[in-house]
Write a structure and sequence with these properties.
Number of strands: 4
Distance between the termini: 47 Å
Largest sheet: 4 strands, antiparallel
Order of helices and strands: HHHHEEEEH
Helix content: 25-40%
Strand content: 25-35%
Structural class: alpha+beta
Radius of gyration: 18 Å
CATH topology: Nuclear Transport Factor 2, Chain: A
Strand order of the largest sheet: 1-2-3-4
CATH class: Alpha Beta
CATH architecture: Roll
Shape: globular
């Protein structure tokens, strides 16, 4: 039987797979219908994901709505997923984008005395490190 705790554990495992970069493992949590439209689903997710948090799990009709907060390289996105029992285990049957927030620049990148931001220099530095 699918209950809130089971769905939460499965949603956390989905998030862990995304953070680990294991998209194949994450895809196993998608319903067959969503797997057929995989490009559209993956386009919702800020990959690579640095952190995924389960914000809420709410019973809604015959399934659960789960809001995930995904932190990527430059954005933090909130995605609502709908989970239903498929073959005895919870699967994502719908996914929709709720919001996107630009991540703040790391501290220390404020404008220098000339009023010129250091973000351009930081971008160049990260390219050299890569």
């Amino acid at each position: 039987m699918m209950d809130e705790q089971t769905v939460r554990v499965q949603a956390e495992a989905f998030g862990e797979a995304l953070v680990a970069g294991d998209v194949d493992r994450a895809i196993r949590d998608l319903s067959d219908e969503l797997r057929r439209n995989l490009g559209e689903v993956l386009a919702l997710l800020p990959l690579p994901a640095r952190d995924v948090t389960v914000e809420s799990v709410d019973l809604s009709g015959s399934g659960y709505n789960v809001v995930l907060r995904l932190a990527g390289e430059t954005n933090e996105d909130r995605i609502q997923t709908r989970w239903k029992d498929r073959g005895g285990s919870p699967k994502i049957v719908e996914a929709s984008h709720l919001s996107r927030t630009a991540m703040a620049e790391p501290e220390g990148l404020e404008a220098d005395e000339d009023g010129v931001g250091a973000s351009a220099a930081a971008g160049s530095a990260s390219e050299l490190e890569a």
